[in-house]
């Protein structure tokens, strides 16, 4: 009885080891390329280094800046930029998954003195100068925080042919009216973005320069961020001098990434078709075209890397 149990136990153990071993040799990156920047895993088609041969193309080149501790990862500066405190700066990567890149958002801020003078102002924006990335309309919302504020979001002028503008208004007269956990227009509002957006500039504007709410609300904020990552904390957010810094650290903006701008059928049988063995090609519907590869059911691995996905 005991011997049988030990035998079963041992065979189970060796089975487990085989599985672990199989997983361990899965290629995440091109062989010989670094897999991590600090704690962040960089899976192919992304790769570390400009023109290092580690990525599928220049759009997927991640710059790992080791002068930060821990190191920080950035999207390529010539293809992406962001407006923040003063001018355009690099876009910091917080996470890369099969479908998305989460980047650090910037928070447009305007703070007022008691008589309505502007004492601090920043804007928020992003420019993606390639077709492989779009701002996710499914994951992100435009938020405005404040009791005398509205958000206004539009494309960066002259870059995108698309005509859109979006925004929402957030007002309240009494701090006791401000609910926690909802963005319904009292202290916080949220609204959707169109599909396929590659640029935006967002500002926060005011109706009465905060003069009537200044005792409990001195600043207004606007940002684009992942809806599920943000919970409005009510009056304590209105009163928090670290609101912008804390929110930028905890609420990323979600970008979709795809390959190309056509459909799977446009690329099949061409040198721009990257889906390897045991994978399927999936058209992307949520942006401006492009495709992704995905392992077939029952297979795993990196569908973009030779030799492809493997079975159990
Ligand atoms: C995986 O297992 C094989 C056979 O058991 C062994 O030769 C190989 O070194 C292992 N590879 C790793 C990465 O552990
Ligand atoms: C990893 O990549 C190498 C070189 O391309 C290839 O020979 C090997 O089979 C790959 N391993 C797996 C598990 O995909
Ligand atoms: C890394 O970051 C430092 C500090 O911001 C900056 O001075 C330097 O130019 C960056 N290096 C690269 C390669 O971008
Ligand atoms: C990696 O993550 C761990 C746990 O979250 C953290 O303690 C550590 O400081 C991180 N290291 C780097 C280099 O980011
Ligand atoms: C508020 O700011 C305005 C414009 O900068 C300035 O003229 C005014 O004196 C300030 N008021 C107070 C109370 O500091
Ligand atoms: C965008 O909208 C403005 C005002 O509604 C209009 O004058 C302009 O022609 C539009 N541009 C495009 C490219 O549709
Ligand atoms: C791709 O090539 C295969 C075999 O050469 C062919 O059967 C298939 O119709 C081609 N597909 C497209 C979309 O051209």
What does this 3D model show about the protein?
With 312 residues, this protein is mainly beta. The protein folds into three domains: 1-74, no CATH class; 80-257, no CATH class; 259-312, Laminin (Ribbon). The chain is 12% helix and 33% strand. The protein is built from four helices and 22 strands. The strands form five sheets. It has a seven-stranded mixed beta sheet with strand order 3-4-5-8-9-20-13, with no helix packed on it. Strand 8 and strand 9 (100-103) form a beta hairpin. The chain starts with a helix and ends in a 17-residue tail after the last strand. Residues 1-24 have low confidence and may be disordered. One 2-acetamido-2-deoxy-beta-D-glucopyranose (NAG) is lined by residues 113-115, 117. Pfam families: GUB_WAK_bind. GO terms for molecular function: polysaccharide binding. InterPro entries: EGF (IPR000742), WAK_GUB (IPR025287). Keywords: EGF-like domain, Signal.
